[in-house]
Amino acid sequence: MARFILVLVVGLALLTWAVSGVVQTTVREWFERDVNSRAKLVLTGSRQSIADAWNDPVTLNRQLVSLARDERVMGAVACNTDLSTRSGTQGFPEEFNCLAVGSRVRAADPVVDVVNGELHEWSTIATLPTGRVYVSAMPISIQGQEVGFAILVHDLSYIDRRERTAQTFLIVVFCILAILASGIPLLAAKRARSDWSLELRGLLHGKGKQSREFQPILSDMRELVGRMVNEREDAPGQWTAERLQQTLNRHLHGEKIVILANREPYIHNHVADGKIEVQHPASGLVTALEPIMRACSGVWVAHGSGDADRETVDLNDHVRVPPGEESYLIRRVWLTEEEQQGYYYGFSNEGLWPLCHIAHTRPVFRTADWRQYRIVNQKFADAVCREVDSKDPIILVQDYHFALAPAMIRKRLPEATVIVFWHIPWPNSERMGICPWRNEILEGLLGSSILGFHTQLHCNNFIDSVDRYIETRIDREHNAVVRQGHRTLVRPYPISIEWPVRWVETAPSPEDCRAQVWRDFGLKPNALLGIGVDRLDYTKGIEERLLAVELLLEQHPEFRGRFSFAQLAAPSRTKIERYKELNETVERITERINTRFGKKDYTPIILLRSHHEPPEVFRFYRAADLCFVSSLHDGMNLVAKEFVAARTDLKGVLVLSEFTGAARELTEALIVNPYDLESCAAALAVALTMPADEQQDRMRSMRSLLAQFNVYRWAGKMLVDAARLRNQERVAGRLAEHANAGPAD
Length: 745
Ligand code: G6P
Known about the structure:
The protein is α/β, with parallel strands linked by helices. The chain binds 6-O-phosphono-alpha-D-glucopyranose.
């Protein structure tokens, strides 16, 4: 624009300069011609009266004075033939006296073509200090006899003045034109720009109809904004509940979040004396998601599994939680015995759970369970759809209990953003093939917008399964699966815990925790304590863990009588045969070890087979010398992360199975293969003798990682990805609308 205006102004200046030259020459010629003919006219007209007054000096002078009365005539003079002055007006320029002009009047003058006797008419333009003058002379005759001549001097300075006025006028006109020429486009551009930015802003907010010329700029802007947002979201600095809230408000404009997860974060149970108690279930999923719901509020749709759950809900089956600091809702869904049996115990925990974990428990698939799984998924999907407050809500579907729900939700809410997180491993495609309903499972999950796993390996396994069993297009460049026009992004989002952990904030000091535990279990002052904290589940490698402790005591007599291992084992899925078996095996191994190495005042294995509330669990974490996490296969294992979070004193050693997701992040732990009992026993010995400064170094490093990669970051990343996806879908939707509406005018 500035360039255009510059060219325009320079062009106008050149044009004005050229025009003013032409105008000047033309005006001057006009005036000179005009003066010439006027002078002739004046002299010719007064020739007779001058001749008549020639011999009367007074009348002659009056004649000359009347000639010079014209303001443009400077003076007139009458000259005798001998070139003497006969009469003249005052102020006649001396330069053109009778003598000076007479010689020219006598000679033939090329300018004048009229010859009259010996004297000639003559004229010229001359320059005086006062300006230019036009001098004309004309012979005077009386009865054919030349008696002299008259000279008239016209002032031409007015022509110069007029020229200057004309030039000034032209310059003024030029300036006005230049201002108009630059101002009008500038105004127009400003107006267009404001209209344009208004329209663009409207389109970016999803309002208005998109015209074709905005398409490229819109996509450029979105890319740029996306990049900026990326940079901002990826900016260093800790993720906190507040930052997550801000991210949610910025990207999703405070939209309500609905979580679907089978396990509820607060279970109401009857206890003695008709009282009702609130229980925090032992579930990694709950540990991770509960802080997210506190930060974001919304609704958590879950199975109402507590025996006092029905008594604590309102008419809509809602209960406000957390108790005492209510900030979000649980929507409880009730299941019949048959539904629970088929959906939860059957298909979810005897089918999918062992299918997805490499823990050598054979999956069991029953048609009746599958039927219940479908019915219950539909039941939960319907409950979710009743909780949402828009046609495009954000729904977080959690875990293997709800593989079918994403497609069911999408069917009812095609514009919803469904984010699925699969909290357990995804098997390789060959193993997935075991499931008779693998196709339905895969198709159900592909109803989601984003499908998250803990690791890239599990993402790859999922994509391979899709590739192998169902008809889709796999976009490997973007890690996405496209099925029937719907795209699902498949991404790794390693889960974590809140930071800081609220149970740590309120826990007694590590010394006090240690003193309490020592007192409770009658440990000697020089005793060493290892702990394990798990649900009683065959994937956790509890048998292997106990066997490794047995081997340690066998190979390292120095620890006998000193080292005790406390296993906090929360009963889990107890109606399932395999879990009952595990319970018995763990009990048997414990008894054997305690018989083999125990003494009156020494119990090698302290088996605590009951549910422990978080404050109790954190007391053990803070008291122990080591924590042994020996899962045979685990999506993440948040116990490992909780132990590190609990150790504000930078003491204690984490012994961690290489088959957990956590082992990829907590590399400063002593990483072991739980199947290799020798190396596990050796790692336990190393842990128990590790110098304090090495413990501190390892702990410090793991804690700084957890502070950074906490669960707020996990949720933030997923929600930002979802927000980006929603924007892309909005733009794509508008483009499609635009294409359907035909070409823009
Ligand atoms: C695992 C699953 C969770 C589940 C938890 C406890 O962590 O991924 O979905 O909640 O185990 O199991 P439960 O069957 O008691 O809910």
